[in-house]
C-alpha cells in the first residue's frame, strides 16, 4: 500500500506498507496535537484498506467525524473495547484470523515482544494489515522502548504552520525491516486517507510555468480549428 508521497515510498523497502505485516505508530511527543496526528495517520491507512475495519480500544475516545476527515467512515468501523493491553492484543490476534477484515487496529500502552510476535504471525497469514497505535505508558518516555518484530515503526508529529490549509506532519520511520530509517514532511491525510507531498512555492511556480508553456494560446487554438 503506497502512500503516494515520493519522499516516503522511495525510501520504504517495499515501496509502501506490506498488507501481511504488523506496523506500529506512535506520536512524536505526548502532546494532544501529536497524539491526534498519530491517530489520524492510522485512520488514513485503514481507510485505504479494503473491507470493514476492527478498532480495539481501552477507552472510548474515538470521534467518528474526525476519523471521517481522514477517509475512515463510521459505517466501516467495528469497535471493540478491552479492559487492558493483554485484552486488546488478544482481540487483535482474533481479528487478524478473520478473512473479511481489511485492517485491525489496537491501541496499547505496553506490549511485550512475545505478544507482538504473535500479532505479527497472525498478520503474516493473510492480507489484513495489523496496526498497533502505541500510547505513551506512565513512567515511560518512549513508546518504542521495547523491541518489536513489526515491519515498520512510525512516529508522527505536527509541523507548526500559519494558515487554514491542511496540517503538515513530520513522518518519521524509526525502523523498517531490511531498510534504513528516515524522516519526511507530508500534508495530513485528506478525506480519502491519502497523504500529499509538500510542494514549495518555487515548485508550484515551475509547474504553473510548465502548464502555461505547453497550453496553446487562444490564437493558436483558433488557427488549429
Describe this structure in words.
The longest helix is centred in the N-terminal third of the chain and has 16 residues, at 32-47. Strand 8 and strand 9 form a beta hairpin. Strands 3-2-4-5-1-6-7-8-9 form a nine-stranded mixed beta sheet. The protein has seven helices and nine strands. It is of the alpha/beta class and 225 residues long. Helix 4 (85-96) runs parallel beside helix 5 (113-124).
Say how many strands there are: 9
Amount of helix: 25-40%
The general outline is globular
Instruction: Indicate the mean pLDDT.
Output: 89
In the predicted model, the low-confidence regions spanning at least 5 consecutive residues are 203-208
Structure annotation, total helices: 7
Structural class: alpha/beta
Radius of gyration: 20 Å
Q: Give the oligomeric state of the chains in this entry, treating copies of one chain as homo and distinct chains as hetero.
A: single chain
Distance between the termini: 44 Å
Order of H and E elements: HEHEHEHEHEEEEEHH
Q: What is the makeup of the main sheet?
A: 9 strands, mixed
- Percent of residues in β-strands: 15-25%
Q: Order of strands in the sheet with the most strands?
A: 3-2-4-5-1-6-7-8-9
Features:
225 residues; alpha/beta; 7 helices
TL;DR of this structure?
The chain has about 220 residues and is of the alpha/beta class.
Task: Draw up the topology in text.
Layout: H1 6-9, E1 22-27, H2 32-47, E2 53-57, H3 64-69, E3 77-81, H4 85-96, E4 103-108, H5 113-124, E5 129-134, E6 152-159, E7 168-176, E8 182-187, E9 196-197, H6 201-214, H7 218-224
Parallel strand pairs: 1-5, 1-6, 2-3, 2-4, 4-5
Antiparallel strand pairs: 6-7, 7-8, 8-9
Helix pairs in contact: 4-5
Amino acid at each position: 500500500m503506497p502512500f503516494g508521497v515520493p519522499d516516503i515510498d522511495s525510501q520504504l523497502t517495499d515501496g509502501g506498507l506490506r498488507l501481511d505485516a504488523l506496523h506500529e505508530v506512535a506520536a512524536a511527543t505526548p502532546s494532544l496535537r501529536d497524539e491526534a496526528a498519530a491517530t489520524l495517520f492510522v485512520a488514513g491507512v485503514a481507510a485505504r484498506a479494503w473491507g470493514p475495519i476492527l478498532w480495539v480500544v481501552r477507552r472510548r475516545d474515538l470521534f467518528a467525524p474526525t476519523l471521517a476527515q481522514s477517509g475512515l467512515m463510521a459505517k466501516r468501523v467495528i469497535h471493540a473495547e478491552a479492559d487492558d493491553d493483554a485484552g486488546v492484543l488478544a482481540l487483535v490476534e482474533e481479528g487478524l484470523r478473520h478473512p473479511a477484515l481489511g485492517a485491525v487496529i489496537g491501541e496499547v500502552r505496553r506490549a511485550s515482544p512475545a505478544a507482538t510476535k504473535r500479532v505479527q504471525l497472525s498478520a503474516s497469514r493473510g492480507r489484513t494489515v495489523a496496526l498497533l497505535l502505541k500510547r505513551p505508558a506512565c513512567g515511560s518516555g518512549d513508546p518504542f522502548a521495547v523491541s518489536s518484530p513489526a515491519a515498520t515503526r512510525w512516529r508522527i508529529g505536527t509541523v507548526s504552520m500559519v494558515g487554514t490549509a491542511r496540517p503538515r506532519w513530520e513522518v518519521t520511520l524509526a525502523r523498517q525491516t531490511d531498510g534504513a530509517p528516515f524522516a519526511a514532511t507530508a500534508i495530513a491525510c485528506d478525506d480519502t486517507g491519502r497523504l500529499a507531498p509538500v510542494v514549495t512555492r518555487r515548485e508550484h511556480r515551475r509547474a504553473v510555468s510548465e502548464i502555461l508553456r505547453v497550453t496553446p494560446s487562444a490564437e493558436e487554438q483558433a488557427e488549429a480549428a
